[in-house]
Amino acid sequence: xxxxxxxxxxxxxxxxxxxxxxxxxxxxxxxxxxxxxxxxxxxxxxxxxxxxxxxxxxxxxxxxxxxxxxxxxxxxxxxxxxxxxxxxxxxxxxxxxxxxxxxxxxxxxxxxxxxxxxxxxxxxxxxxxxxxxxxxxxxxxxxxxxxxxxxxxxxxxxxxxxxxxxxxxxxxxxxxxxxxxxxxxxxxxxxxxxxxxxxxxxxxxxxxxxxxxxxxxxxxxxxxxxxxxxxxxxxxxxxxxxxxxxxxxxxxxxxxxxxxxxxx
Length: 264
Description:
Blueprint: H1 2-20, E1 34-43, E2 46-56, E3 61-72, E4 79-81, E5 90-92, E6 97-113, E7 122-138, E8 140-146, E9 152-158, E10 169-172, E11 183-197, E12 204-216, E13 232-246, H2 256-259
Antiparallel strand pairs: 1-2, 1-13, 2-3, 3-6, 4-5, 6-7, 7-11, 8-9, 8-10, 11-12, 12-13
């Protein structure tokens, strides 16, 4: 599945490269290219959003500063629904805690292939590392409890593998239920990958990234109550990034009205 997904991304990017060949880019080039981008990413261990700044070191290299917020999932998670209810809520049976990971780090980006033609693809590699902070909180479930032979009520309880089974669960409560019981666990992260930037505008960034990352914590995060938890998470990811080029030598060109001006 992972191989097919990555192959599809590469074929898509190759198609973009072919479609852009022969179109000469006549837009004024920005030499001192600082940038900032926002990203949406999917990984084999979750999903999230990110913010990144790139400061020019020379024509091919940039220093990176980035921040991520990601939901971390256990590899044994399987989403279920209770067929006994007409409009059941979905849930992951056996999941004990929800986990958010906050990452902040510095890194480096180097351009390997320059985007020469309009509609071409610039290829870069990047890496980054820094501290990570996991926040995990208990999950409350809506549990069906019989109060008589003919009557039942829905109560909210934390999952307990000794007393709950899938037929008793109506659904999951709000994420904010039990948030005051949350705990923090510090750790470290690192990531590396390739960026394929394909924007047709000099001042705007559209890019697809693929790579691998690792999150490491001093002890296992108690995500599941019915499976072994772990302290180190290694995953593959793919992301879409959107952002803008900032020219420090020409502040007037950095105004939004100029950045998104359509080239005639």
